[in-house]
């Protein structure tokens, strides 16, 4: 299972990589999703196990956004609660969403991951284990360049435009419409309407504004272009920092998260930056749940999954893009 801030996915597969079932539910990040994480995990797991005997499950891995040291105990507790409720057998391991994303992008054990969806982080892996990490601190303290960060910057820019502190921007109309706020004729009333709506939603919901930034940037809106370039700069700086000195830079480079896996100006700038810095074409992690399945298979067999098994697990057409 891959429990992101916006959605939760589950894959049930055989040891040779054949996918038998898939499930999907709401986000399961305690910090930004709202609701009960265990409930979302259980729903995704039950969907994926439809028609499959839960007692036949031999191993499971749950990768959860926000499950680093600060949130590990809570993430493990939610995963175990869902596992028991669904009647799944076998052993269960709880890891971060970063580990399942890297495993989804490559069967290699060493390399770099840049994730940018609802949150954002850069990680260097050695022997399948994160050993250097940058950001991933959540919407309040970090995740610079992420969808939520871009959405927050867009909303701030609109508010500055409305009260006169900043330039007018084409983001005002789309942001207002996306949030379902009233576009009052009076700028102050308009701003207050945006504030009321924004504070009533979970932080992850601001990530839904990120595509509006990309569209406005393509229309040459100066404010949106500034947000795009700043986002890409934050992401590449984090990746550079995680990679260390040029001589230490690991390959491959795996990209994950909707911002980097969906066509748009931020993704374009980041891909160009990766090619220039690392001289490689970035790999894609389109299904974190498949990465979790790969880790579960490796735990059972005692060896990394073979490339052919990895290819079956992550075959195009069956993928999810997690934001």
TrEMBL record:
Domain (ATPase BadF/BadG/BcrA/BcrD type): residue spans on this chain: 2-296
InterPro entries: ATPase_BadF, ATPase_NBD, Euk-type_GlcNAc_Kinase
Record Pfam families: BcrAD_BadFG
Coiled-coil residue spans: none
Name this polypeptide is given: BadF/BadG/BcrA/BcrD ATPase family protein
The species this protein was found in: Dactylosporangium maewongense
């Amino acid at each position: 299972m891959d429990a992101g801030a916006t959605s939760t996915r589950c894959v049930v597969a055989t040891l040779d990589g054949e996918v038998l079932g898939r499930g999907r539910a709401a986000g399961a990040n305690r910090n930004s999703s709202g609701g009960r994480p265990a409930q979302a995990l259980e729903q995704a797991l039950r969907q994926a196990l439809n028609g499959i005997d839960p007692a036949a499950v031999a191993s499971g891995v749950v990768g959860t956004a926000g499950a680093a040291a600060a949130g590990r105990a809570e993430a493990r507790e939610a995963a175990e609660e869902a596992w028991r409720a669904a009647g799944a057998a076998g052993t269960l391991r709880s890891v971060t969403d970063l580990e399942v994303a890297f495993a989804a992008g490559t069967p290699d054990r060493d390399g770099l991951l840049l994730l940018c969806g609802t949150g954002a982080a850069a990680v260097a892996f050695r022997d399948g284990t994160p050993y250097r990490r940058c950001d991933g601190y959540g919407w309040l303290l970090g995740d610079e360049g992420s969808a939520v960060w871009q959405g927050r910057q867009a909303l701030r820019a609109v508010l500055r435009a409305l009260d006169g502190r900043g330039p007018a921007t084409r983001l005002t109309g789309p942001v207002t419409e996306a949030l379902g706020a009233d576009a009052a004729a009076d700028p102050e009333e308009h701003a207050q309407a945006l504030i009321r709506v924004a504070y009533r939603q979970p932080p992850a919901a601001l990530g839904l504004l990120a595509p509006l930034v990309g569209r406005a940037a393509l229309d040459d809106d100066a404010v949106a272009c500034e947000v795009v370039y700043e986002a890409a700069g934050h992401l590449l700086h984090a990746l550079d920092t995680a990679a260390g000195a040029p001589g230490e830079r690991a390959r491959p480079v795996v990209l994950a998260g909707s911002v980097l896996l969906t066509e748009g100006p931020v993704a374009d700038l980041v891909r160009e930056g990766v090619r220039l810095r690392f001289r490689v074409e970035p790999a894609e992690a389109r299904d974190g749940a498949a990465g979790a399945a790969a880790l579960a298979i490796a735990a059972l067999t005692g060896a990394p999954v073979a490339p052919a098994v990895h290819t079956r697990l992550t075959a195009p057409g069956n993928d999810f893009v997690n934001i």
